Amino acid sequence: MLTGACLCGAIRFKLTGPIEVINCCHCSRCRQRTGSAFATIAHANLDHFEYTAGEDLIESFTPDDWNVRRFCRICGSPLPGTNEEDKEVGIPVGLLDQDPGVRPSLHIMVESKAPWYDIAGDETQYETFPEDW
Ligand SMILES: [Zn+2]
Ligand SMILES: [Zn+2]
Question: Which ligand has its closest atom nearest to the C-alpha of 71?
Answer without folding.
Answer: 1
